[in-house]
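Quick one: Acetylxylan esterase from Sphingobacterium hotanense, structure tokens please.
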Amino acid sequence: MIINRLGKILVLLACLQCGFLESNNAQISIMGIDVQDPGTTLSKEQQILTIGLDHKNWMYNTGEDVVFEVQYNGTQKDPIEVSYAYGLERMRPMKSGKLKISNGKLRIPAGSFSEPGFIRCTVNIDEDGKQLTATATAAIASEKILPTIVKPEDFNSFWEEAIKDSKKTALNTKFTPMDNQGSEVVDVFQVEYQFNNKGDRKFYGVICVPKKAGKYPAIIRFPGAGWVPLNGDIKTAEQGYISLSLYIHGKPVNKELAYYKDLQENELKDYQFKGTTNRDSSYYKNVILGCVRSLDLVYSLPQFDGKNVVAWGSSQGGALSIITTSLEPRIKYAVALCPAMSDYTGYLHGRAGGWPHYFLNDALDEDTRTKMVETLPYYDVVNFARNIKVPMYFSWGFNDVTTPPTSFYSAYNMIKGEKKLFIIPEGVHKIYPEQVDKTYTWLKAQIAKNQPH
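--- reply ---
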């Protein structure tokens, strides 16, 4: 089938560095964050300019002095001029200037800070006409960061009613074999199902099911922002799991790449900004309802073990993992990497807010801004996180520009249930292999605890 051709293209693209454009209104890169770059490592070997902190874990208490440590391993001789700037992430620098490196090393004292948050320092060197840049971000009492977003009084009832209405339409599930995507032990299908959101809506995904007769736990993969569908997770299915990779845009997942490029340039262009002034018209209302109804799909499968559903996602997918877990008590465990959509209103309080950075736009008129302040709390991860009751695993990096750590700590700190966190201090907005390994190992261990012996 033609999905095989798309799959080959995606494999090639997976070898490229993934990430987001930093422009607030820019369309997201082709693959979003859900592609793991096989070459991604955190090794600093062979790097010419690096920056770290005098606390090796990059974490500080309020009142502790923060010192950035710069190292230059290039060919230029002293004196070497370094431009620097530091301040709250994504905000205007508190201080900037130029300093000289001596013997390849430089310390930049930033002083102490009385409020929880993240302080980011960027340094630049001009080496033979080429600009070298390095960044480090200090966490200041990150466990004490509180959200700025306000929870609407009818938040819970709004979503309870919306989910109830969504079930007025039967799933009408359809499975289309994706013959060239399977393996000797796994069947792969495009799955299509329906739900109600002011009319019948469709959702699609790629589902991988073990061929061997039996009852299996299920893992739902929520997609990062973007417009190309996820590949099916055949490797995990081969280990005895049902794997469902959702596509949130209500379009088939078995088309050629040109089909999705057209969506990106037209129907899906800047989809994350659609409906931000009305809670019933938000693009993400349909997305969230489709994600929640995926649990009904899983529970309808004869191969499902009837109890073990877990959620996994990064960036936008991390947000949807949290949101769906909050709204669907049948999810037993969940993972969220560098979750987006957290604490949108941070920018209105002098600090970074979550992707897609709605309030970073200074051109918003007062009426639009007011309506967004009223609407977006219904779609802010912080308010869903408050209701999380099941074990969750989180992972992120402090150098993340797309989903600033200030924003996702605002949500993480609201979760009162069992939670585990793996931090890669130097990490940016990518999926690192060790994050995948650790989170899937954790998920499988949780499922194993719940299996009969």
